[in-house]
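pasting input
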Amino acid sequence: MSESRRRFFKFLAASPLAALAYYSLPSGWLEATEAEAQLMTAGGAPLEPEVVSCANCGAAIEPIDAADAVSAVRSFRDQQVPPQMPPQQAQEEQLTGSLITSPADAVNVWDFERVAHENNLAQHWDYLHMGVDDYETRVANRQGFQHLAIRSRRLAAEPVTQLDTSIEILGQRFNAPLFLCPVAALMAYHTEGESGAARAARRRGVLQIQSNVSSQSYEEIAEARGEPHWFQLYSNPDWNRNQRVIDRVSAAGCPTLVWTVDLLGGSNRELARRSLVGQGTSNQLCQSCHNHQQGYQRPMARDLDGPAGERPPYTWDYIKRLKDASDMNLVVKGIVTGEDADLAIEHGADAIYVSNHGGRAENSMWATIDSLPEVVAAVQGRVPVLIDSGVRRGVDVFKALALGADAVGIGRPYVWGLGAFGEQGVDRAIELIMAELSIVMRQTQTRSVREINSRLVMEGRAPIMTRQNQFGFGL
Amino acid sequence: MSAAVTVRGFMRIAASAAMTLGVLAPQPSAAQSSVDFTVSGSSTVRGWTCTVRGTAQVSTGSGAAVRGFASGVSAVTLTVPVTAFECPEAEMREHLLEAMRAAEFPQITFRLDSYAANPQGAVATGSLTILSSTNPVSVPMSLTPSGSGVQLAGEVQLDMTTYGVQPPVVMMGLMRVRPQIRIQFSGVVTP
């Protein structure tokens, strides 16, 4: 320790009251001050401040007993309270702190995730949370968005005062380029189920796609929404059963059928298998809701009995067969390559839905946002392109729109909202993501969804616009 | 004795009792309106929502001006008939009525004690009675004048155990309803 520093600590040791002037004395200083006091105490002499220059400031420093000095320094040290760090505390609160108790308190959609986790049966939660194999596709879906950067524009010829987030897709107009993905059995998370989500979606003016394996019927959900919505179909090998469910939703006014093709080969959902080991749905608690007794059918599988039909293979020709089965539009869900997008359109698809089932199909480790550009390039504007999987933020919506999507779906985030607070949670989840999207739109000087283009995003250090095609697609 | 006679007899007694107590009969200046209540909560299995339609009796005048009520509000009573609760499942409704001891305590009431006006509406402070417990509560609410009256909407969060309500426990504890609930309400009241 240099001599000047020693003199300083001796001064503090001799003048504890002066030390008290330091609201947050570094711990190292305290140790050094205490050491100096002990040294002087060992000498047995009263402590006299050596620093006389302070006389210039008029301070009167009285000599004190050495033992008192040690005691005073120790007392001061013991009273020291570690300084509070609000930013760290806030982050801690967000990650591990108390759960929100009202949807209005949510800052982002992950606030709902924690509450929904707390509120739901472990098996229900596991079903929603699970991916396949080692979750790598789920992770990739998020990383895909995170690897894209926003290439902001700061000023425009006219100020951005009002945003138009509306879209038109397959003849329907919606307030937002956001839609609620088909998710199975929503009453597992909240008694309001699909109807609660429908009311929130209607209020916010966003599209909702009902799952084929929903907890509530098409008719109930449409009544809650106040207008028909889209219906997702898991095709049955027996064509007649497909025709009956198609007839049913078509008669109820459904304008668009969404055929899922990303699970035709099955999936390895290990968490679901582990979660249900030893539990099943046969125990008394599960039976109180599932009621899977003899003859039980989910709402959209009821009343479909009748003569068996032919069992056509799942090939590209199946698209035409579905298309011809009703007057509804047909969307093919689960496309991740340009080749498949092109073939689907050739066979009659009215829209392409880029999806890997939220990472619940195969462990491709390939994000949908990464496959979107090649799909958009192959589609060449012939039909709308929808996308989901991994969307959590308004900026994710922006990136997908910039890369050519016409509408962007959220799955887990709105189910977290539902599981946390029912309809109000879904409403708030939509509001949050749209608020985030609005910020990005203002920051990039885009007044409408139509103005969001590929020049506004870049991958790493290489702008996508430099890629070899007209719109900068083709990653 | 026919059932009709019995009912008429009961109605006469009830009307007489109400006039005697001066509680149930609406005040001349009071208007009665419907208010929809949504009660939400959670459990160890999933979230839940039940709904009920109640009444709001609002007396105007002799109070500080508040949005939609230029001459102020002198009294407000919200009444919820417990047996009118609707839940998504019959079994859930049974558990609710059992927890609320509906036969013994058929109504939930809120009586306004005071209010503080703000640009959106008011913060109403009053007494909430559930079962036999009465506790003070403060409820922020929005008040929006409309063609047919004043649209009121608000939300309050409660711990039902503070009113002596035991949250339902089903299947020997396999499923437990959590005590915290959110009550949202909305309706149009006529000044």
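fyi The beta strands of chain B are 30-43, 48-60, 73-81, 107-117, 121-130, 133-146, 149-159, 169-170, 175-189.
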